[in-house]
Write a structure and sequence with these properties.
3-stranded antiparallel sheet, Arc Repressor Mutant, subunit A, Four Helix Bundle (Hemerythrin (Met), subunit A), mainly alpha, about 220 residues, about 70% helix
Length: about 220
Amino acid sequence: MPIPPTDAGVDRSLLRDGVYRCLRNAIVDGTFAPGEQLKDQELAAWLGVSRTPVREALLRLAQGGLVLAQPGRSTVVAPLDVRETRDARDVVAAMHELAAREAVPALSGSDVAAMREANLRFATAVESDDVEAALRADDELHGVLVRLADNRALETVLELFTPLVRRAERLRFGSRDGHASVTQHDELIRLCAAGDAQAAAAVAYDTWHSLPSADR
C-alpha cells in the first residue's frame, strides 16, 4: 500500500513511557544496582530504540530520585538514600490517604470484591516469599482506590515517587513484616466496605507510612 503523505499522528509518548517503565523496573528490581553507570547508547541497544527516548527516560528517573544524572558526565543508579526514601514514602502515603478518602463513597460491591481477591493473592505471595507477585497484588488492591479517586494530579505524584518507595517495599514483602500488611489490608477493606472514608483513609496512610526506609 502507498504511504500516506501526511503524518499518521502516532503517539510517541507510548514509546517514551515504555522505555521509562523498562528502565524504572530494572532499577527497582535490582537488575541495575545502586552506583551502576547507565550509558544511553548501551541502553538504547538493549531496548532496541533510539537514544532519544532513553535520554528522556533517564531525565524522568532523575526527577523521581532513581538515578543521578549530570549533564556531560555519567548517569548512575542512585544509592539507597534514607532521607529521600522517607520523603518519598511520606508523600506516597499522603496520596493514598487522599485516594481512599475520595474513592470510598464511589466504591461498588465488585470493587470491594476485587480488593479482597487481590489481598488473598497478596497473602499467598507473601507466604511463599514471592516478592514480585506480592507487589503486583498490592498494586492491584490499592489501585482500585486510586482509579476511583479519578485525580490526575494524585496519579502523577504516585507515578513519580512510588518507584523510589518500591525498594523499601521489597525489603518488607521479603520479610515477616509482609504478613502485617495482610492484616492492614483486611482492615482497609473492611472500612471501605462499611463506607467509612475517614477511617479507611487513615489506615491507607498508615499502611504506606509504616514501610521501612532504606536504613531498616
